[in-house]
Amino acid sequence: MSAKYKLTENPPASAKNGIQNLHARIVPSRTATIDDLAAEISTISTFSSGDIKGLLESFTQVVTNRLKNGENVNLDGLGYYSVSLDCPKDITSEKRIRAESIRFRNVNFRCSNKMKASLKSMKLERVPAVKKKEFTGEERLQRIISKMNELRTVTCTDCMGINQCSRYIALQDLNLLIESGKIEKLGYGKNVLYMLRP
Residues 58, 35: contact at Cβ < 8 Å? Predict the structure, then answer.
């Protein structure tokens, strides 16, 4: 069995002499769940699928607790987990910051060398390119507004799907709508949402 990939254009800002380079991106066939993993492990072990699922859920809880307590977690053959933090910007002195201002940001995962070495032998198969429908700038903006009327809030990823465009183009469109006062931006980082202004 092989993994499928597609070739995607790099953002226009990275173009050299007006020519955009392409990069390869995996096209996931599906997302495996804890039930899928438990069922597969049960076929190569003497444990039942239910036992394995319970073990994996307990394992996840223990790893989470370790990270909450400020520990890093190293899983031989899998990878290394650690926590990153958010800190207010423009802080130049320790006296100007309180512990309450520091908060969880994300979980970092660094894949083990053993797993990387194993993945280097993966088989790859290119999926046929599907010609995307191209919308004008005005059409893209109108489609985003229509989707906001339907869903109330959208993400940048939603806009990429709505208009079949790159993240770069979707962000450009959203910024135009913000500048024109039609929508507003909520949240920060990976949790940004966009909604119509009242």
Answer: no
pLDDT of the residue at 129: 73
Q: Are 77 and 115 in contact (CB under 8 A)?
A: yes
Q: Which of 7-21, 66-80, 117-131, 137-151 has the lowest mean pLDDT?
A: 7-21
Query: Is the whole-model pTM more than 0.85?
Result: no
Please state, in angstroms and rounded to a whole number, the distance separating the CA atoms of residues 78 and 34.
Answer: 16
> pLDDT per residue over 14-36, tens digit each?
556 667 788 888 888 888 999 99
Q: Give the HSE-up count for residue 22: Cα atoms under 13 Å, Cβ half-sphere.
A: 7
Structure confidence at residue 92 (pLDDT): 66
- Residue for token pair 């994300």: 106
Please list the alpha-helical segments (H only) found in the chain: 34-43, 49-68, 113-119, 137-151, 156-163, 167-179
DSSP state of 26: E
Give me the long-range contacts of 122-125 (CB less than 8 A, separation at least 24): 122/2, 122/3, 123/1, 123/2, 123/3, 124/2, 124/3, 124/4, 124/5, 125/2, 125/3, 125/4, 125/5
Whether 26 and 3 have beta carbons less than 8 Å apart is answered as: yes
